[in-house]
Specification:
Elements (H helix, E strand, L loop, with lengths): L4 E5 L3 E6 L2 E6 L7 H22 L8 E5 L4 E5 L1 E2 L1 E2 H4 L5 H20 L2 E2 L8 E5 L18 E2 L12 E5 L6 E2 L3 H18 L4 H12 L5 H19 L1
Parallel strand pairs: 6-10
Antiparallel strand pairs: 1-2, 2-3, 3-5, 4-5, 7-9, 8-12, 9-11
Length: about 240
C-alpha cells in the first residue's frame, strides 16, 4: 500500500497524494462560527468540483474522481508534471513565449465559458510534455479514472508538444462580467511580473496574443486597461 504524502498546506486546504490520486481537504477555520464555517466549506467544495468538471471539458485540468461535501474533500487525478512557476524561467525565451501563448488561449476558453479562475498564477499551472502523457484506464476498480504521468521533463517545449494544466479552482466562480475577466488577466500579469520579471512584458504580450481567440477579447482588453488604470491610481 502506498503511503500518503503531503503535497502542500495552504490557508484553505491540505493536499495529500496517495495511489496517484490527490485529496484536497478544506481546513476548518476557528475564527468562524462552526455553523458558518461548515456551510462555507461545504459550498466551496461543491463549487470547486463543479467548476473543475466544467473547465476540464475545454482545457487541461485534473479530473475530478469524487467529491464529498460532508468531509469537505475533493479527490483528483495526479498530474505528474512540474509547477510552471518553478520551470518557466529555465526555457529559452522563444519557448516561454509558446507556453504563454497557450496559457492565453486556455484563459480565453475559460472566460468564454464564463469561468473566472480567480487565482491565475504560474504556481497554479503544471507543465507536462504531451508526448509523455500516459493515459491509463484503471480497469481493476472500474472507476474509469485517468492517470496522467510524464516520464521526464525535458528542457525544451519540443515544437509546442506540451500541455499546461490549470489547477486549484478554489477561488473560481461563474461570471459573464467583462470586469471579472479583466481582473483575472490583471492577476496573471502581476504574477508574471513578480515571478518571471526578466521577460514579463514579452510574455504577457504572448498571453494576450493567445487570449485574442476569445469572442469578447476586444471588450475584455478594453476593460483590462481600466483595471490597470485603477491599480496605478491606488499605488499613488
Amino acid at each position: 500500500m502506498n503511503k500518503s504524502e503531503i503535497l502542500g498546506c495552504g490557508a484553505e486546504a491540505i493536499l495529500t497524494l496517495e495511489n496517484n490520486q490527490v485529496t484536497k481537504n478544506r481546513i476548518s477555520k476557528s475564527y468562524r462560527l462552526p455553523q458558518i464555517d461548515e456551510q462555507i466549506r461545504k459550498l466551496r467544495t461543491r463549487n470547486e468540483a463543479k467548476l473543475l468538471e466544467k473547465a476540464g471539458k475545454i482545457i487541461p485540468t485534473p479530473k475530478v474522481i469524487s467529491s464529498d461535501e460532508k468531509t469537505k474533500e475533493i479527490i483528483l487525478e495526479f498530474i505528474d508534471g512540474k509547477k510552471l512557476s518553478e520551470c518557466l524561467n529555465e526555457f529559452s525565451l522563444k519557448e516561454q513565449e509558446e507556453i504563454c501563448k497557450q496559457i492565453g488561449q486556455s484563459v480565453a476558453k475559460l472566460h468564454d465559458a464564463e469561468i473566472i479562475h480567480g487565482d491565475l498564477t504560474t504556481s497554479n499551472m503544471i507543465y507536462v510534455l504531451e508526448k509523455n502523457l500516459d493515459y491509463q484506464q484503471q480497469k481493476d476498480n472500474g472507476s474509469g479514472e485517468r492517470k496522467i504521468q510524464s516520464k521526464k521533463l525535458g528542457g525544451k517545449v519540443d515544437n509546442a508538444n506540451f500541455k499546461i494544466f490549470f489547477i486549484d479552482f478554489g477561488l473560481s466562480f461563474n461570471s459573464p462580467k467583462f470586469e471579472d475577466k479583466a481582473v483575472d488577466l490583471h492577476l496573471l500579469k502581476q504574477a508574471l511580473e513578480a515571478k518571471h520579471f526578466q521577460h514579463w512584458e514579452t510574455l504577457f504580450k504572448k498571453v494576450l496574443e493567445g487570449y485574442s481567440i476569445s469572442k469578447n477579447s476586444d471588450v475584455v482588453l478594453k476593460q483590462f486597461k481600466e483595471v490597470e488604470k485603477r491599480g496605478r491610481y491606488k499605488e499613488h
